[in-house]
Amino acid sequence: MLMLLLYNFVGTIVGLVMGAMPGLTVTMTAALIVSLTFGWQMIEALAFIIGAFCGGVLGGALSAIAINIPGTAAAVATTFDGFPLKKRGEADTALGLALFSSLVGGLFGLIFFLILGPIIGKYALKFGAQEYFILTIWGLTLVSLLSKGNFRKGLISAGIGIFIGMIGMDPVTGLMRFTLNVPLLSGGIHYVVAMIGLFGMKEVFVQLTSETGFKLDIKGYNILKLLPNFKLIKKLDLKWLIAAPLGAFVGLLPGTGGDIGALVSYGTAKNIIKKPSRPFGEGAYEGVIVPEVANKAAVGGALTTMLTLGIPGDSVTAVILGAFYIHGLLPGPTFMLIEKDYFYLIALFVGTGMIFAYIVGIFGSNAMIKMLNLPKWYLIAFIPILCIVGSYALQNKITDILFMLIFGVIGFILEKSNYPVSPIILGIILGPMVETNFRQGLIITGSFQSMITSFFTRPLALVLLILFVASFLLQSKVKELEKNK
Fold first, then answer.
1. Are 475 and 145 in contact (CB under 8 A)?
2. Domain hosting residue 109, numbered range
């Protein structure tokens, strides 16, 4: 067990460092970790991957407060009040609040995960083709709508992913499709190869065309001031606690994640907290606490959906889902029956990962701040090596390296054209599930009209359909918040 905790601890440090570096996202970190942990034992890999997930989400707050550049998408809302606090000379207070609220949100998300996971797992076996079709379409649609606020570009990216997922053998008829009579495409394109190229190699190309370093003069932190300031927290309006359940619930929805949870919670807090410590956007303490609580609570929600239904909650859990498949773990409706022990083991790693992230965040913040001043070349040089090794080790095929490089170039072109890359991976993973469940639903019901009718006659399908529609109202609220900022 001590060795597993060590793997979890090291993974947390890796995630923190990568999350704190602007441009090196948690999703890309997860993709690289798939390469790194390919040959490991399952439990060791789980400990490392979950630790990196927890650390990566927290690491984004450090650069958000220090230089007003969120290290991760989940830390975008933290910049609204975190950087103004730093400009007021309260950088220590801002980071201390961010770290403490991250721990609170993470532990709440863990409780949410432990309570709701078994409940959803109990009903997951009642999900049929209709329910899974709604869920998978929901995931694809939400990530398309919410990627960089551009419906058209997000939908195009998701469509590219669905097309890539259809290359190879038809899952029902066994016929080849979209292979152009090229033997290399007959087995399809492995989603992990695409994932490594789109998030890992793409980032290398992006960083090669950007500045090599930030060259900032950032002062270090007083470690004692990073410890919890309970006197200050007691003075604040406790309505900020609403961010925890709100973030966990948003994380539970397919296709969303910590960034959406943080934005929604921030907007809700602005509406219900009438007397903040300062006006929101001008250095309000609540403006730092709320998004950090929400985006960490969303971790528990996203993992719940991924493990019990096999549907990734966001792009990060989509990558982690692929990593779990590689290591022989099969998230989905039968997970709580067949692999229930791993559910609680993952919960343990989430809990220890959050605690480790908090401790390392306090005592390692000054070291990570210094890393922000280093040229990116020091880190970027290792990423192509991990991408190449990981792509080849997957199936021992040189062609997978070629595919990985192609996807790296595709990802770079899309990034420069302001097209989101995350929907592509979700499309590759969810696309075949959408197709398979749609066709199974047609076979079971007998006709397209009967299948549509079954969405309203099956209770679970009707509930999911209502939530699906309600999510668009949530999307509209997020757009409004982004417009106001």
1. yes
2. 2-484
* CA–CA distance, 317 with 299 (Å, rounded to integer): 9
- Looking at the 3D structure of the chain, how many domains does it have? 1
Say if CB 346 and CB 50 are below 8 A apart: yes
In a 13 Å sphere around the CA of 54, the CA atoms on its Cβ side amount to: 38
User: Is-contact 423 143, C-beta < 8 A?
Assistant: yes
- As a whole-number percent, the residues of the chain with pLDDT over 70 amount to 84
Q: How far apart are CA 118 and CA 122, in angstroms?
A: 6
Confidence of residue 213 (pLDDT cuts 50, 70, 90): very low
* Helices and strands counted in the chain (H then E): 24, 2
Residue at 292: amino acid letter = E
**Distance in angstroms (rounded) separating the CA atoms of residues 372 and 66:** 10
**Which residue in 296, 294, 273, 249 sits closest to 474, CA to CA?**
249
Burial class (CB within 10 angstroms; exposed 0-12, middle 13-18, buried 19+) of 77: buried
Can you tell me the distance from the alpha carbon of 401 to that of 185, in angstroms, rounded to the nearest whole number? 14
Residues 391, 400 contacting (CB under 8 angstroms): yes
Helix or strand or coil: residue 339? coil
Predicted local confidence at residue 6, as pLDDT? 92
380, 29 Cβ separation under 8 angstroms: no
Give the number of residues written for the chain. 485
> Which are the contacts of 446, defined by CB distance < 8 A and separation ≥ 6?
none
**Is-contact 277 290, C-beta < 8 A?**
no
Sign of the torsion angle spanned by Cα atoms 473, 476, 477, 478: positive
DSSP H/E element including 118 = helix 91-124
**Can you give the pTM of this predicted structure?**
0.69
Residue 182 exposed, middle or buried by CB count within 10 Å (0-12, 13-18, 19+): exposed
Alpha carbons 429 and 194: distance in angstroms, whole number: 11
Place of tokens 């570096």: 21
- pLDDT computed for residue 351 by the predictor: 92
3-class secondary structure, 409: helix
Q: Which helix (H) or strand (E) holds 168?
A: strand 168-169
Please classify residue 40 by burial: count the beta carbons closer than 10 Å to its beta carbon, then call 0-12 exposed, 13-18 middle and 19+ buried: middle
Give dist(CA 254, CA 137) in Å, integer.
9
Residue 215 has pLDDT above 50, yes or no: no
State which amino acid sits at residue 401: I
